[in-house]
Design a protein that fits this description.
The chain is of the alpha/beta class. It is built from 13 helices and 13 strands. Keywords: Signal.
């Protein structure tokens, strides 16, 4: 298991090097002062995706690699310490964090490069997808940690699936402890869980047992859908949208139109993202010879949800609410 070098040791080394330059020394002294003022009474040790890290003080310079991670840290109360963010071209930002998010420097349309990351001298890089720490791109967790930069990956992409909300609760609790925003992290966690449980309670009260649902990610020759181990599966369970492809050990999988025809979905959730619009995806499904015969298409029972709402964040609750309200309007008094 990976054991991080003490943050105080790394900070001391950085200050000694920085002392060679006046500007660097001034900045280093300021960072040392801030860290000293906020130092934990006892070091905080966490294990994230099998990696152990120890923090002597809350990180002061954070880079967020994915948009939903940026939103999450702002919601927790740590947005003022984010010095750069990936995926800066996102337009559908949560309204409650939009102003603070726009004030954070955007580094790239997707992921920043290794050089961009190290130039900002972060003490923590937080990512929401495994691709953010791509070894081939030179920004693996090993490489960053060897350079004295701590890392954190949302557990959705640790490889163990996302069976329930305990994984989110653990991630957010750990981030709250490490960042020194435990109250904000707990409030955010409670809000997400309360929202999805309220939806499920409403459906249960209305006697909803679920609707066989095809989650259409994309693809024409070979359709892609969600599997049974990811966030999509959990969202479907709370929203009363019973995923018809629960097999496999991956959050997304490829299937065939023939199998889809056999499973006769009664509803479709279209994931909206990328170059192909949701409207074009729906038009294709209506014209596809096999899909056009399914109950979902015949009854026009189709829900559109942004792919951005299928990640480990408060957006999960939004997707549960959207799908449930669209599939079961009577249960919500519509």
């Amino acid at each position: 298991m990976f054991r991080r070098q003490s943050r105080s040791t790394i900070a001391l080394a950085a200050l000694l090097v920085a002392g060679a330059a006046v500007a660097g020394c001034s900045r280093g002294e300021a960072q040392e002062s801030t860290a000293s003022e906020q130092a934990f009474s006892d070091p905080v040790t966490i294990t994230n995706c099998g990696r152990e890290s120890t923090f002597d003080a809350p990180p002061e310079r954070i880079i967020t690699m994915n948009a939903h991670v940026t939103e999450t840290l702002i919601q927790m109360g740590a947005g003022d310490r984010i010095v750069g963010r990936g995926y800066d071209d996102r337009e559908d930002v949560l309204p409650e964090v939009a102003e603070e998010l726009e004030a954070i420097p955007g580094l790239a349309e997707e992921y920043p490069t290794w050089e961009q990351i190290v130039d900002l001298e972060p003490d923590l890089v937080v990512a929401g997808m495994r691709s953010a720490f791509d070894e081939k791109e030179g920004r693996s967790r090993d490489a960053l940690e060897a350079a004295g930069i701590d890392t954190f990956l949302f557990s959705e992409y640790c490889g163990d699936g996302f069976p329930d909300f305990s994984m989110l609760e653990t991630d957010f609790s750990q981030l709250g402890r490490v960042l020194g925003v435990e109250e904000g992290a707990q409030e955010l966690t409670d809000s997400i869980v309360d929202r999805v449980e309220a939806v499920r309670a409403t459906l249960d009260e209305a006697g909803v047992t679920g609707t066989p649902t095809f989650f259409y990610d994309g693809g024409e020759a070979e359709p892609t859908t969600i599997g049974g181990v990811g966030i999509g599966q959990l969202i479907g369970e709370y929203a009363g949208a019973d995923n018809i492809f629960t097999e496999g050990d991956r959050p997304y999988l490829a299937t065939t139109w023939e199998i889809l025809g056999e499973r006769r979905p009664e509803a479709i959730v279209v994931l909206d993202y990328g170059a192909t619009s949701a409207e074009d995806k729906i038009a294709y499904l209506r014209e596809q010879p096999i899909m056009s015969t399914t109950p979902a298409i015949r009854s026009d029972r189709i829900v559109v949800v942004p792919l951005a709402d299928f990640f480990e964040s408060s957006r999960m609750a939004t997707s549960v609410e959207t799908i449930a309200r669209e599939l079961y309007p009577d249960a919500f008094g519509r």
